[in-house]
Structures are given as structure tokens and as C-alpha cells.
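Let us practice reading a record.
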Amino acid sequence: MNKNKITLSLAAALILGMSANTMAAGFQLAEYSATGLGRAFAGEAAMADNAGAQFRNPAMLTYLEGTQFSIGAIYVDPNIDVEGSVNGTQTKASDIANSAVIPNFYLSHQLNDKVFLGLAFGTNYGMETELAGDYQATQFGNQAKVTSIEINPNIAYKINEQFSVGGGVRYVIGEGHFGAALPNNGPDLKYMEGDDTSWGWQLGTAWQINESNRIGFNYRSEVDLNLSGSASGLVYGGKTQPGSMDLTLPATAELASYHQLTDKVAVHASFNWTDWSSFEKLEANIPSYSSSPDLIKEENWEDNYRLAVGTTYQYTNKLVLRSGIAYDTSAVSDEHRTQTIPETDRLWLSVGAGYNWSQNLTLDAGFTYIFAKDAPMNEVDPSLGQFKGETTGSIWLVGVQASYRF
């Protein structure tokens, strides 16, 4: 079945759309806070600006005194184009990824000198793409959307002045749809929608080497979703039929460091890994269509790596300035890239600021511009023909956040 792309795409890109051009590799989102956005998310697993720190490393809860909460949102505006030829006919689709707002909320509480609790509401995956009706390759997929919400309770323990550990469970709610249609505003070839919930976990640790240097590490497990719903379209005889598709949100890991060079200047860095090699193929299960799984496509993705470096400058007692640069490697090689998920390398340039409005209230803002590397595509399907072309684009993000300490 071609729910394949629904899931894929749906997962693929909260682009944010084509995740490839969005923020993190595959269909992964990095946008968990405006604070981190301002430094290109460099050093996140080793920093604790506010309650949002637990989303990247629950051990950092031990650096948050009393009770704190943080609320914010990041606006993402992707500009992604796909251009090429399908079966010899030139075609182009512009701005295929829709803009989106990614909200977040975090709460932390110091139970005693050793134990700290936290609760996070955010997302790691999502997307929305739509190709215009006059695009000549809509048979490969013309719309895709995925939304996910993660509820993440955490607990951390301060072993001593140097070492802390933390962990939490992840409850993920996901839903999405995918469609493909005949060109020139033709009827749907297939359309599928589904949803599911599942569980995962995360573990983190922090090492305070000395007063000025810190290292943090975090691991997030994979989450297995079985998107269950319905399928329809010409491929299925024009009837609506029940169906499902397995989708694994891959495991991730981050090693980060923080270094206070002077009273005013700090530098920080992160190395991230995502287990995208677990994404080998797409299979759909539609009992009324076939008794065995329907192999949609061999994906053959590869593990992705991200390197980020950032700086923090305490300009005044109230104002802090941030900056960062990051590079994301593509999770797919040129021979396996598709127009549904035009994954490619990305370069991040970020700036941000934080302002202590009062002793208890801090306001943060961040801005990022992402350069997506131009990348070729060559998609072949025995029944649909061949699409050969290129994806180009860029993305900008702006985020705001408010944090309060009781």
C-alpha cells in the first residue's frame, strides 16, 4: 500500500516539512526551546538555563533550584522547492512545506537537596507538505502531514557535587495523513490517515568537572508506532478500507560540554547521533488488500550526525547574548533520496538573547537561518515511471520563551 508515504512523509517532515530541509535530520525536530534556538542548540545536554533543560537531559534538573516553569513557541517558515522531470516532462513545485508553530511547556521542582522532579510537553517529530495540483509528479505523493505530542515526566538525583543522573518516560501521541493523486488535479490514487500512541524512555548524566567545566550525556530510546486508520483511492477500488503501518521514531544520543572561560564568556558544544539506519523500508498492512505486508519502498537510510558550537556572553547583569553554528549531515544518500522526503545536509546560523525582567522572570528569544544543501533526486517506480530532479531551499525560525522561578 502506499500508506507508505503517508507515514513516511507524515513522519517525515513536520517540516516542518521536509525535514531534510527543516531542522534536524530525517523527520526529526530539534526545536524544543527558544533559549536553545539562539545558540543552534549547542551544549544542550550540559546546560540548565530553565526547566526546558530536562527535555535534552533530565540530569540537568539537579541544577534548577526551587520550582520553575517555562513556556514558549518556535515559528518555522520553510522555503522548499522541488524541480525536475517526470517521465520526460518538466515540472516544478514551490514552497511545498507549510509553516508551523511548535509550542512547549516545562515544569521542574526541587523535592530536596538530592531529588528533583520534572514534567515536559513538547515534540520531536512532525511535518506538513503539499504539492500544487499542477505539479506533474503527484503520483509519487502530493500531500503529507504528521503531528506528534510528547508528554515526558522525569526524575533526577544529585549523587554529589560532581555527578548527577536522571531519567524519564516518554508518552508519544502521533497522527498523520498521506495522499497521492493523478497529475493535473486528477483523482486520488491513494489516501491514508492513521494514529497511535506509544511509550519510550530517556536517561542522562552530568559531570561537573570543576566550577567552570561540565559534560552532559543523554540517550533517548526509539519509539515504535503502529499508525492505524483507513485507506482509500483508486488503488483500493475507490473504497475505504482499514489499514496500518509501522513507524519507528529512532533512538538518539547527545554528548555535550559547557565551559565558562571568563565571568562574561562561555562556550559550549554538542555532538548528536540519530539511529536512522533503523529506517530500512516501509511496509503497510491492509488485510482486505493483501494477506501479507505490502512492501512500499526500500529506504536504506543512514545514521545521522550533528555538530554544534555556541557562545554565551553576559553583556550586563540583566542581558545575555547567544550565538551558534551547527551542521547536520543527511540521513540518506543521493541514490535513495525521494521527493517525498528530500533529505539533505543543513547549515545552521543562530543568534539569541535573554533578559532578566525581574529576579523571578526571564524572557528569551532566538533566531535561526538554515541553509539546505541543493541535492539531486532520482526516484523510480515500475508502475509510476521516473522522477529525476533536485531539491533546493532554506528555513528560518524564530522563537520566544518565558521562564519563572518561584
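A brief commentary: The helical segments are 3-12, 34-37.
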